[in-house]
Amino acid sequence: MDWKKQIKGLKAYQPGRTIDEVKEIYGLDKVVKLASNENPFGYSSLVDVFLRDSYLNHAIYPDGYAKNLRTKISSKLGVNLNQILLGNGSDEIIQMISRALLQPGKNTVMAIPTFPQYKHNATVEGAEVREVALNSKGEHRLDEMLEQIDNSTTVVWLCSPNNPTGTYITEKDIISFLDNVPEHVLVVLDEAYYEYVVADHYYDSLELLKIYPNLLVTRTFSKAYGLAGFRVGYAISSEEIISQLEPLREPFNNNSLGQGAAAVALQDQEFIAECRQNNKQGLERFYQFCDEEGLLYYPSQGNFILIDFGVNGDEVFQFLLSKGYIVRSGQALGFPTSVRVTIGSEEENKGVIEEMKNFIKEAKQEASL
Ligand SMILES: *Cc1c(COP(=O)(O)O)cnc(C)c1O
């Protein structure tokens, strides 16, 4: 078969080990997954009520326009219905944007390391990928990214807070960046962790949308809202941009249950505020641990932290796995001596930190032998 040459050797997404697999391999009763930045507190109880009491007819296609959910997002954010694009997770939004704007002869600019789906989709479309290394603080180097933009650039990807570093872009920096990006370039601002942000100088992306018509913001119900299993994400942009992307959306890309669950979850901002607060406290616990042990880390605005253990991240990963904690090795994330850990519940954080201490102790003992 005559496959596109750019998909030659492309690897399928490698899902981490499941909780059940780890239980079986290591003979453990309890396994905690802190690998995919899912919400350790689950989701709003309103979602359970919806799932129990909804009488959806599953023989009928979902509402392709997702009118109810769309209306709820529109009134919560104060944007028009036609400024919203719904996706099967924000992953699908990234795919639609890539399909619409990337092709051979065009290029796209992004940070490295950042969320891998930008590059993956750009590669599938045959566009040239221009990656700009993060600075030593794990932040986007926006000036260098600007320099990479030329007449053939169609999309620039910003991830703030950035996965996997947790770092964010300040208001001052993003404004000066947007002021200088040519109008023919779509700037995608991925705010998958928006709900967790507590930083002082964080910009208001919805205000920025009013000023910069070539800006598109993506958000998701997978992280703080705790609905990763339902696959609902969305983009907000100018009506012109959304109207170009909307025809690329599959007709029924969000299923009925996902639409309903997301719509009720949006109503429970108390739950989100609690999660944000718990996350902040959890992060502080990790900072304290890192400071005590002299480990390097990036202060994070997400629900995860990247910690540098100064040894192969796979070793730390394996050790924690054998103790019942699934984290992500930095090997696959562009930080080979780090691991990325999702902030869990108080008990989970305490448990994984305890095992990290044990890892360090054992490594020291081995070194002194
Ligand atoms: C998790 C994540 C996403 C994808 O989220 P879905 O809505 O579940 O597809 C997008 N961007 C970043 C930065 C993420 O970490």
Notable traits:
binds pyridoxal-5'-phosphate, about 40% helix, amino-acid biosynthesis, Aspartate Aminotransferase, domain 1, 7-stranded mixed sheet, about 375 residues, Histidinol-phosphate aminotransferase, Aspartate Aminotransferase, domain 2, aminotransferase, histidinol-phosphate transaminase activity, alpha/beta
Shape: globular
Assembly state (oligomeric): single chain
CATH topology of the largest domain: Aspartate Aminotransferase, domain 2
Q: If helices are DSSP runs of H or I spanning 4 or more residues, what is the number of helices?
A: 13
Order of SSEs? HEHHEHEHEHEHEHEEHHHEEHEEEH
Give helix % range.
25-40%
Q: In the CATH hierarchy, what is the superfamily of the largest domain?
A: Type I PLP-dependent aspartate aminotransferase-like (Major domain)
Structural class: alpha/beta
As for the number of domains, it is 2
DSSP strand content: 15-25%
Gyration radius (Cα, Å) is 21 Å
Taking the sheet with the most strands, its summary is: 7 strands, mixed
Bound molecules: pyridoxal-5'-phosphate
The CATH C-level class name of the largest domain: Alpha Beta
> Which residue ranges are poorly predicted, with pLDDT under 50 across at least 5 consecutive positions?
none
For the terminal residues, how far apart are their CA atoms?
A: 57 Å
Q: Report the CATH architecture of the largest domain.
A: 3-Layer(aba) Sandwich
Total number of strands = 13
- Order of strands, widest sheet: 2-8-7-6-5-3-4
